[in-house]
Write a structure and sequence with these properties.
The chain has 410 residues and is α/β, with parallel strands linked by helices. The chain has two domains: 211 residues, Uncharacterised protein PF07075, DUF1343 (Rossmann fold, 3-Layer(aba) Sandwich); 119 residues, no CATH class. Helices cover 32% and strands 13% of the residues. It has 13 helices and 14 strands. The chain is globular. The chain starts with a helix and ends in a 7-residue tail after the last helix.
Length: 410
């Protein structure tokens, strides 16, 4: 009898485990073809995509063309449609060699499609892999694309993709006085949402331009909403997602993606953030740091043609490790330890932060990354990480109340 009871208990626990496990491999919204393909038949389609816009082994544009969909134009973000340009490198317009479809860059002379670009378009699609970090520019591109869609009264379908940093909501919430393309909205450095959830928040909170919001709200009232988010399959907030394609040249693997929210701050300092090495955002340092530290030399390479401190021997940190260990170490937070320690060890502290030609620290790139002028002053004053984190709490608590309204996944 006791053995039978134990068997029943084991079966019950097994059933519970199965019920809590998504039924099958994770698939992005793009793979959910039944949800959006019927809306594209006989329509002229605009596609905002890059090298991550894959369905299995095929690019979304190839899948759509095989299905008889007329893709009239492709829009490309930072790093370009094929994902090979350097960070910040301006990209021009061209005709894609593989598909012969015109590609219009939205990271060159403009950040959003023009009315002329969209005059013959019926449906717009957005499908790009994000990493869930405020200063990763794809959410800024999404915002501009949404505004263009609504201002031109076009249906927009956002094909959702998993966020590898979905487990984390942390960092200072952006002060909109520091709004830039590396931070447009009052969200923390890591906001724990997929790009589809983020799109829902942009319209739900009315964060788009007034005229765009007016058109969108009119579409809701008419029962024909201009925004549709196609969700991922078999995905939950507990999922660990290994990206099948690197999202940009300097985020080559999950280890870099996990460290990126913490170590990208070095882009606003004179230290190398690891561009021009095999492990960007995992290696960082400077020639002036102690010579007994880890040594590396940034060099020119694809995706980092002119890295900071190119060909100079740097001393600093090597954080390479298994992604699982990194995630466990970070414990659902970003880390300020290395930033604070680098400032402590740097001999010429007045030169640590890169300032604009005007010398105005408030206009520095570091403050754009931080989303405020406070973090720089906290570092200079010698505040420890715990005290700095305490100042983030009111903003984070307020944001979490907003965020929960737009979550799609359990």
């Amino acid at each position: 009898m006791r053995k039978f009871a134990l068997l029943l208990l084991w079966l019950a626990s097994l059933s519970l485990a199965i019920a809590q496990t998504p039924p099958g491999p994770i698939a992005p919204g793009a793979a959910n073809l039944d949800r959006y393909l019927p809306q594209l038949k006989g329509k002229k389609v605009a596609l905002f995509a890059n090298q991550t816009s894959m369905i299995g082994e095929e690019h979304l544009v190839d899948v759509l063309m095989k299905k008889g969909v007329k893709v009239s134009v492709i829009f490309g973000p930072e790093h370009g449609f094929r994902g090979t340009a350097d960070a910040g490198e301006k990209v021009g317009n061209y005709v894609d060699e593989a598909t012969r479809i015109p590609v219009i860059s939205l990271y060159g002379s403009k950040r959003a499609p023009s009315t002329d670009d969209l005059k013959e378009i019926d449906v717009m699609i957005f499908d790009i892999q994000d990493v869930g970090v405020r200063f990763y520019t794809f959410i800024s591109s999404l915002e501009a694309y949404m505004e263009a869609a609504f201002l031109n009264n076009k249906k927009l379908i956002v094909l959702d993709r998993p966020n590898p940093n979905i487990h984390c909501v942390d960092g200072p919430v952006l002060d909109t006085a520091f709004r830039s393309f590396v931070g447009m909205q009052p969200v923390p450095v890591v906001y724990g949402m997929t790009i589809g959830e983020y799109a829902k928040m942009l319209v739900g909170e009315g964060w788009l331009k007034a005229d765009a919001m007016k058109t969108y709200r009119a579409s809701l009232a008419a029962g024909r909403p201009l925004l549709e988010v196609v969700p991922c399959k078999n995905y939950s907030r507990e999922s660990v997602y290994e990206l099948p394609v690197k999202p940009s040249p300097n985020l080559p693997n999950l280890a870099s993606i996990y460290w990126y929210p913490s170590t990208c701050f070095f882009e606003g300092t004179v230290l190398s953030e690891g561009r021009g090495t095999v492990a960007p955002f995992q290696l960082f340092g400077h020639p002036s740091l102690p010579k007994d530290m880890f040594a590396f030399t940034p060099v020119a390479m694809p995706g980092a043609n002119s890295p900071k401190l190119k060909d100079q021997l740097c001393y600093g940190w090597d954080l390479r490790a298994e992604p699982e260990l990194i995630r466990k170490k970070l414990n659902h937070k970003i880390s300020l330890y290395y930033l604070l320690e680098a400032y402590r060890l740097f001999p010429e502290k007045e030169k640590f932060f890169i300032l604009p030609k005007s010398g105005d620290a408030k206009a520095s790139f570091f403050n754009k990354l931080a989303g405020n002028a406070i973090l720089m002053e906290q570092i200079k004053s010698g505040m420890d990480e715990a005290a700095i984190r305490k100042t983030w709490e009111p903003g984070l608590n307020a944001f979490k109340k907003i965020r929960v309204k737009y979550l799609i996944y359990k």
